[in-house]
């Protein structure tokens, strides 16, 4: 792991505020790199190809799955989502710190493939707050919101397999906790091999 | 571990600045509790019994070892040092966060007995800086400093068995890193059992 970057996986139920916390992190840590996911769902208003997602045809996506080009992928509500492997591994190899903002099952897939990935589970302060956020962002139809809420109860039980849990009661506070996690993880012995070589010389 | 405190073990070679960083931590986190070690070495000027150490007779110390009253103990340069077990376990049981400021071998003993203890290895930025600090604090005779420096080279190889490593190039920065480590460790899933029970109700 010497000289390699940190892979931070920011995850949690839909409506936890992953995107907002992620933007705050990138603003405070301009050297961190955001991995862009691929998806087959249609772009929402204002979403740009290559910035928010790589928007792919279903056939292209399936071919990439067969070729093992994804670090994780899933079919969610009929659409495919995935993290292209190459971008992440090249950035880590150059020593860059990479953020993945992905769903819960995807995060656990990444941990299986890259055990040193640091998994952060972002969660709203309560279930009623989660419901409120899903409604007020106005992205989903009522039946989709209902589906997401039911789904999130099952997903939340997976949180104990994560490395860290951060309650998103306030964006600044939540981002600050994730930054503390990054600072702590950068203090792991594997990052100090060269330091000790020099120290003991 | 629910509702239990965090056990932070601050360790490192003699002259790494454990005491100074520890004082800074306690000042910034008044709810943290410092465990007072026991020793058979004579008090240095200004050291108070029960505050800096419990100063014990050798016979008393040996009796306590036999009774299993220490979380860790060692004989260093002819003197005994140890951490009384009862104080630490009672404070943790009440949910208080406890700091131990102890030597390297002691820290590894604690980790064996309490695996959830968080071990932080504090190290000066270079060997020449370590030597300078040992000389300038004026506590040791030249042959003791030589002994300490030789010993520290061996001890430093044990750093990879620690959870975290913090280079003490600046007291404020080092204390800040330890505080980030505390914040991260407080975000471990085991502290969220009650939160999830309420969330899923």
Automatic annotation (TrEMBL), chains A, B:
One of its GO terms (cellular component) is cytosol. Its EC number is 2.7.4.8. It is found in: Cytoplasm. One of its GO terms (molecular function) is ATP binding. Keywords: ATP-binding, Cytoplasm, Kinase, Nucleotide-binding, Transferase. Signal peptide: none annotated. The keyword Signal does not apply. This is Guanylate kinase.
């Amino acid at each position: 792991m010497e000289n390699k970057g940190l892979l931070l996986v920011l995850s949690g139920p839909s409506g936890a505020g992953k995107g907002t916390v992620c933007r705050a992190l990138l603003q405070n840590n301009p050297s961190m790199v955001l991995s862009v996911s691929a998806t087959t769902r249609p772009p929402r208003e204002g979403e740009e190809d290559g910035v928010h997602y790589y928007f792919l045809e279903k056939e292209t996506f399936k071919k990439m799955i067969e070729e093992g080009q994804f670090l994780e992928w899933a079919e969610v509500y009929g659409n495919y989502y995935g993290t292209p492997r190459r971008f992440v591994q090249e950035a880590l190899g150059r020593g860059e710190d990479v953020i993945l903002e992905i769903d819960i099952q995807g995060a656990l897939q990444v941990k299986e493939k890259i055990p040193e990935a640091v998994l952060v589970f972002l969660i709203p302060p309560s279930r009623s707050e989660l419901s409120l956020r899903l409604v007020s962002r106005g992205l989903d139809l009522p039946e989709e919101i209902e589906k997401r809420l039911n789904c999130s109860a099952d997903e939340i039980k997976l949180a104990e397999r994560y490395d860290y849990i951060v309650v998103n009661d306030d964006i600044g506070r939540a981002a600050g906790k994730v930054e503390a996690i990054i600072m702590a993880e950068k203090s792991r012995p594997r990052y100090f091999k060269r330091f000790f070589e020099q120290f003991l010389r």
